[in-house]
Amino acid sequence: xxxxxxxxxxxxxxxxxxxxxxxxxxxxxxxxxxxxxxxxxxxxxxxxxxxxxxxxxxxxxxxxxxxxxxxxxxxxxxxxxxxxxxxxxxxxxxxxxxxxxxxxxxxxxxxxxxxxxxxxxxxxxxxxxxxxxxxxxxxxxxxxxxxxxxxxxxxxxxxxxxxxxxxxxxxxxxxxxxxxxxxxxxxxxxxxxxxxxxxxxxxxxxxxxxxxxxxxxxxxxxxxxxxxxxxxxxxxxxxxxxxxxxxxxxxxxxxxxxxxxxxxxxxxxxxxxxxxxxxxxxxxxxxxxxxxxx
Length: 294
Description:
Layout: H1 2-17, H2 27-38, H3 42-52, H4 55-61, H5 63-70, H6 82-91, H7 97-108, H8 121-132, H9 141-150, H10 153-167, H11 173-188, H12 199-210, H13 216-223, H14 234-243, H15 245-248, H16 250-260, H17 273-285
Helix pairs in contact: 1-2, 1-3, 3-6, 4-5, 8-10, 10-12, 11-13, 12-13, 12-14, 14-17, 16-17
């Protein structure tokens, strides 16, 4: 729409000006910006979608304008623009601690209807996953659990995947992140009900545990209740090998395989080279496990 194009032009102009305070913006540009934020024509809705991408920037420069003209549009209880406004914001979501204090209730209120966000839905859950790993962004465990419970399987899978990616490193960062944040989140925030378990989450949490370095046994204990049987073990065996867990933690590695492998004949290739290698490493590291009945 023309208003949307004007909003984009205003944002381009502002990016060129790089203002450090609201008064640094020329008066005519401020007037255009404010008219787009408060306009009542249909095209102004799409202008606000464009401007929602820069909510954190606007809130930093002029908190009062952001609170009065744009933030109310994020509240789906009061605004019929909420869905499209969130879609705009989530295109390039940026949240500051000050902004979080205001937007948090409206953010949490989006999870029961997150499917309506379309392609932006995954970004909503990525923001939640990020927020839960940060200091300075208060969120009650029960509120976070309710968001995950009311959300979608696709969304929960996104959170699990995001955390798994964060711990995957060649250092002890994963172990540190598990001790400092993830252990609490897995034990106190993640929904434990059986209906919230699925193959995607099981895969991500398996990956998460394998990437927690020296905390692998403890991480496995934390995620074991969310794992389900599978015959897709190639990636699991690859990461067992890559992270060296069978040599360092033979009992925990055997415990992981036992949690994931179904009955013989369900597609598991016990004689595969990868499986033989991991089982050999376990038996060499802990000979007492060689005759384990699992």
